[in-house]
Amino acid sequence: MYALVWVFLWRKFGRLLLASLVIAVVVGTMYALAVEMQTSRLQAALIGKLARELSFKVEPGPSTAIRFPGPGPYDERLGYRQLPDVVERLGSQGYAVTAQARMSQRLIELSDKGLFATYREKDQAGLELRDCRGAPLFSARFPQRVWDGLDAVPPLLVDALLFIENRELLDERYPMRNAAIEWDRLGRAAADRALRLVGDAHASPGGSTLATQIEKYRHSPEGRTESVQEKLRQMASASLRTYLHGEYTLPWRRQIVVDYLNTVPLAAKAGFGEVNGLGDGLWAWYGRDFAEVNQLLTGYSGGGAATVQLVHRPALAFKDALLMRQALAYKQTLSLLIAQRRPSHYLTVGESALNRLTNSYLRVMAEAGVIDPALRDAALPIRVQLQSQPVAERAGSFIERKAATAMRSRLSGLLDMPRSYDLDRLDLMAGTSMDGDMQRASTHVLRSLKGRAAAKEAGLYGFRMLSEGDNLSGLVFSFTLFERGERANLLRVQADNHDQPLDINEGARLDLGSTAKLRTLITYLELVAELHDRWSGLSSEQLASIAVSSKDVLGRWALQYLAQAKDRSPEAMLEAAMERSYSANPGEAFYTGGGLHRFENFEPKDNGRVLSVREALKHSVNLVFIRLMRDVVHHYMHRASPLEEDAADPRRQALLSRFADQEGRQFITRFYAKYQGRSRDEAEDLLLRSVRVSPVPLASVFRSLEPEAGVHELAQFLARRLPRATLSEQALRSLHEKHGPDRFSLADRGYLANVHPLELWLVAYLRQHAGATLGEAFAASRVQRQEVYAWLFKPGKKKAQDVRIRGLFEQDAFVEIQRAWRRLGYPFESLTPSYATAIGASGDRPAALAELMGIIVNKGERLPVARIASLEFARDTPYETRLDYQPPEAQRVLPAAVAEIVRRSLIEIVQEGTARRLKGAWVRHDGSVLDVGGKTGTGDHRFDVHGRGGQLISSRVVNRTATFAFLIGDRHFGTVMVYVHGPEAAKYKFTSALPAQLLKAMAPALIPLLAQGCRDEVAVR
What we know:
Largest sheet: 7 strands, mixed
CATH superfamily of the domain at 433-513 and 843-860 and 895-1021: DD-peptidase/beta-lactamase superfamily
Mean pLDDT: 86
Radius of gyration: 41 Å
């Protein structure tokens, strides 16, 4: 009975009941979705749980649990994407990863699936350099102008941004709301997108929230949304970031506003670079001071009765004037918020469109109650004008930034990042070896010396120093200081008073004069030590049987010393070498460098003296070191078999061929420079200026230039060059036949024409091969270069051959000397092959002399220089990577005994020699005196032009330098230099006494800091 009733009811009302149930489910689902769209409670629970699993931590050593980001603008600018390549590059330069981030497993999984890494990103980052104490040395922050939090942002600006981009973002009624999605905005965007598929004319504004926009311009390739998949990736990543700090998202949503304002891209500006953030945008595009705009907008409290007509009043009341300033600031900031949609258009060529769009927003915002009508009416007539001129940040003095500039230059090389623009925008903190306190103290002293009173107080005026008439502004004072570390030499100070970026310590080739005597002395002592090692174990009889060339004075002395010495220790032999005597007489002429040269002493009183090497070093006597260099060169020249004595030795031919090729190249180079780029006629006219105007020389030239030409062409040529001459046809035929290229050698044709044969050849070659390079001319002239020196190969020319062989041997000797100097830090690839190199003819650099001092202080071991001790990339991010410098083992480059005797000799220079003004100047606080040693050097670099007979025709001064390469105690060393560039240098007469006095003047400021020391990553012994 009951069953029948239920069947009846189901048949009667079943469909209605089912429909009601379906409706109830649909309504309930829609209600739940509506609630979720408003509250995001389910998202908060699910996404929040997932976000809690996204973490990272930094642990020692390289990480395998790490993923680096893709090509997003933010990740590339801060250097995160390039980190694997950077680590590899640094690894090849002695840096090792000592700590790195480890990502959680969930963070790795999501990264592998394409989502952007979830962590608290930085609005502001940049290069930071720290000194050896961890104190700031340099800091670059980009963007430069940022708000610290939402409370610091003017409410007017916050309201404008939310109205334009994300109106529900800060709705406090829903504390769990997902900041990545604004449903009604997203729905409208989707509908508009669908309508646009039907008709292209339908506008389709974006539906992105501020959170997804940040993801886009930071991490999407090129900061763009190129597909639906990319949009979904941005939304998913933004959702995870929203709940990273918990389910309650209001604090994070407030931070999103700040992050957006601080980092929104606003195109790029010449002289400024990439513009990110509203603060930098106001400066770059409108030249507005960030603090002033903040003050104006924060202080706005309504415009009262102000109207647009106020603009035209001749005199504005204070309140009205303030309103106009506020209106201008507001319209400029509003225009940038609008311009971010198409920044490269609106901020470059679309200024008019930007003004119109900004005005339309002013009207709409006033209607919506976002701003009051007074502000709207004040702002509407104002036309915002973008700055057309490049803008640049105000930079401090190059003097103050010298150390930081040097460190940034070093970093640039380490990272292969030549543009400082890119370097300064890396998220990188570098620990340097610089001592900031000592750098500032040194810079202060050097800068003060631009004033006459300070220079006098420092004792810089006097004999061989400054004169009363010297212009102090033209002087550059430079000071570098290193400290010996446990495994590396540590650069502590690099300072000068030169308000330009040039680093004269490392950036120029300078004549540093007598400092070259120190290098010559070391080479001399190295050879003595080498001879000791070779012969000290031999008996007197064995020593007597060794054959040494009569011209190898040094080898003969070593044999004699070892045969007679009771003490054959290396120390005793080196001491004896220091006591060898040389004449200082300038009367002798020296054949060196392919010519005859005479040299002078700096002090005429030394001219008649005979001095030991030790005394000559103390007093920097030129002629002693010229003769010492001659002994060194002759030792290299004659320690092999003496080819000059055996005319039949087959090796002579190879040497003479080498000479012919070498000198021939020099002539080809000279003539190529003379004729390069000239037309056939111009080259011919220029060549004939040196030719005697008569038939035979001219015929010889013509037949060399045009070997295939006939008699008629020769006749025309001679007619042009000898218009008054009358030559019979028989005479012309005779000239043509006799002067063909097959009748005379190239050398004979050059002789007949009275020009160098290779000049004649080169003009002919360029005539046939227009545009040929110098290298091609070298290759083509290989045979001709040998041919023109055929006379030299004849048996009767032994004397001429010997002169040239000796010249080649001298060149080879200087190649060997250069290798010895290079091993000790000499910075150039060649030396001038002349004894004058002993007194500075080959140039040097202060930085290279400092390295040499380091080798001496380190007892003959060459330690690497540690300027950048540590590199910390991407701190507090999932990519954090720390690398520390791992110096290689010290390299023995000088025998310890040689280093020690040189060190003592340098101290003697201060105690008794050219730097004795420094004696007792460096005194510790306890009264004890620091040992100071060093070598002085003065350079007067000029170009002299001499006429025949050696007469000086002109002299152009290039610069004047005075240097003191020093050591202090057993840990510190460096250089101090005074430098003047240009023709003004001719007015100065200072010598190396000046930098020695300068080092003395710096002692009071630096001694306390030396005692204080610095605790480095690379520890000090």
